[in-house]
Amino acid sequence: EVFDDLAFGDTIRRDLPAALLGEDVAEETAPGPAADVLRLRDAAALSSLLGEEDAPLSLDLVEDVRGGALLGLATPEQAGAAALGALDSEASELLGAALEGSRELRIADVPALRERLAENGYRLGDGVRDLALESFVLRPGARSYDTEALAADLAGASFEPKPRKPAESTLKKESAETRAEHVARAEDRLASAVSALHPAAAELADRIEAAPWARSILDDLERPLQRVLETMHTRGIAIDHAALQSLRDEFEGFVAQAKREAGEIVGEEVNLASPKQLQVVLFETLALPTTRKISSGHSTDAESLTDLMESLDPDSAGHRFLSWLLRFREMSKLTGYLVGLDKEMDTGSRVHTTFQQTAAATGRLASTEPNLQNIPVRTSEGQRIRDVFVAGEGFESLMTADYSQIEMRIMAHLSEDEGLIEAFRSGEDLHNFVASRVFGVSPDAVDPAMRSKTKAVSYGLAYGLSAFGLSRQLRISRAEATALRDGYFERFGGVRDYLHRSVEKARETGYTETILGRRRYLPDLTSDNRQRRENAERVALNSPIQGSAADLIKLAMLAVEERMREAGLRSRMLLQVHDELVLEVAPGEVEQVREIVEDGMDSAYELSVPLEVGIGVGRTWREAAH
After folding, report:
1. What is the pLDDT of residue 33?
2. Residue 260 belongs to domain spanning
3. DSSP assignment string, 69-113
4. Fewer CB atoms inside 10 Å of the end CB: C or N, the chain?
């Protein structure tokens, strides 16, 4: 969970053994011998593999540096593989009929495979079964959900580490025989993996049968949502390319200015992207106080340098250098984001982000290529990036919609705290109301600092933040943070009791639950390792709230998409980013869309406190903010 919060989740899941992630590890067995793998070079071989029309078929498509797109196919009795581009017309036609037929297709990550197959002229029928999605619902937080991971974790298959990608020079020197051997080994590996999807599918079916909650989450939420997300991916969102280029030029100018100004302060040109050079400039040339010790010297990360800068005289050379350095980093990051957007645009000036359902253990969606959740919005320059996202041709505006303070409303619902419930039902400003209670003053006497501190406590509790974490966030002492949290609990005892109850209940049952019954198993709650146990306790605190918020926005998306379709509107839903929906509105439909969105989100789930939906409309994503 810590790694998910830091956006390292996928990397950690790939690189750490399952046992270190608290997962059950299946007994490993070797994959089938290569001699058993059919080489699907022609229609006869493919027909032999496909067998009966009602036999389930597992498949995957991978890119091989030597063989191109390699297709792996398997029935429960036979596995095979081939370079997709090498299939003759008869075999290609036979494959297309099998994929579009009525047989069950067992796949890890249906949307990704559907898109890759479509690029090669193939369609998937209605019998698809996404084993990654099933596994995610049952085992959130697993290291990976790709074909090999499912084969290993659920069917006991084992695979050698993936070979490194050879250098271009190596490939050029390879003989045809050597190349063919490498491709054959890649085909063997792929065939073994897709073959193991059949016992994996049986294992998942048994687990789902024994877990009615999982079937409900899959049938009523995740599977219907998957098709909606695929449709949203296909739609994409329009980019004003001229505005993007203009903003990129402006930001690149800021980068150059920051680099120039920093160099003038120390009297030499400095590579601001080099930690090694920065250590010399900061701690030798400028003789600044050293930051925390790391293996390569002293830290030059943003937090360390911000703390250092705030300790210096604003007029000092060190303060001015650090200010330009941090400016350089910020503007370089924003410029890089614009460069990435430019690369991701299609010929119609739209970008098509991929929504990931299995990326976050809490159930929240993630987006990749491009990552639209990564747009910085806390600075004015970061917010301007949203100005390049616009309504496309034939549409008049963008609409944004999100829930107001959804985590706190869920907290009020789950904790049944009378104070929080009163705050939401009264319609008063939540954080002002809470601050007045915590600090014992009238609402009119609450100042911005009080409001900011209690807001941090409220959301910190929803995210399982400790007193230490709160002190770091607010830049106050740990003692003050503890006193602030204790004062909060004194006034909102229902929240305190709920949080304590959540951890203890999870320790007893082994899992947490969302409002829809989605479970997250936490075996480390009973670990002898203190660090792992405390991390699991933090997860037990935030998972019901974060997971319930994820469930709620997903229900809303299903409702909005269905009602828009039933109304026959041209307007359409494009994005879901941080629980915010972004829609493209057709001429003359804005009021009807507003009504559908507001009603669909408001009625998604009945809480003990009212849901509040904020809606904005504008030409750009930024203008549509509310």
Report:
1. 39
2. 241-344
3. EEEEEE-SS-EEEEEGGG--HHHHHHHHHHHHSSS-EEESSHHHH
4. C
Most distant CA pair in the chain, distance:
83
pLDDT tens track for 153-166: 999 999 998 888 88
For 302, the token pair is 């943003």
pLDDT tens figures, 40-60 = 888 999 999 998 888 999 999
Q: Look at residue 1 and tell me whether its pLDDT is greater than 90.
A: no
Q: For position 84, which CATH number holds?
A: 3.30.420.10
With both helix axes pointing from N to C terminus, report the angle between 223-235 and 110-119 in degrees, rounded to the nearest 10: 40
In degrees, to the nearest 5, what angle opens at C-alpha 190 toward C-alphas 186 and 194? 175
H helical segments located in 18-72: 43-50
Secondary structure in 3-state letters for 159-209: CCCCCCCCCHHHHHHCCHHHHHHHHHHHHHHHHHHHHHHHHHHHHHHHHHH
- Please indicate, yes or no, if residue 624 is contained in any of the structural domains: no
Q: How many domains does the chain have?
A: 4
Q: What is the pLDDT of residue 85?
A: 87
> Tokens for 379?
């600075």
Query: What is the average pLDDT score of the chain?
Result: 91
**Model confidence, pTM:** 0.89
Whole-number Å distance between alpha carbons of 58 and 63: 17
Name the phi and psi angles at 215, rounded to 5: -60, -40
Which residue bears the tokens 């209690």? 454
Give the separation between CA 31 and CA 26, rounded to whole angstroms. Answer: 14
For residue 490, what are the β-bridge partners?
A: none
DSSP assignment of 361-424, as one string? TTS--EEESS-GGG---SSHHHHHGGGGEE--TT--EEEEEEETTHHHHHHHHHH--HHHHHHH
CATH number for the domain that contains residue 371: 3.30.70.370
pLDDT in the model for residue 65? 81
Domain check: are 366 and 436 in the same one? no
Tokens of 463: 């995210």
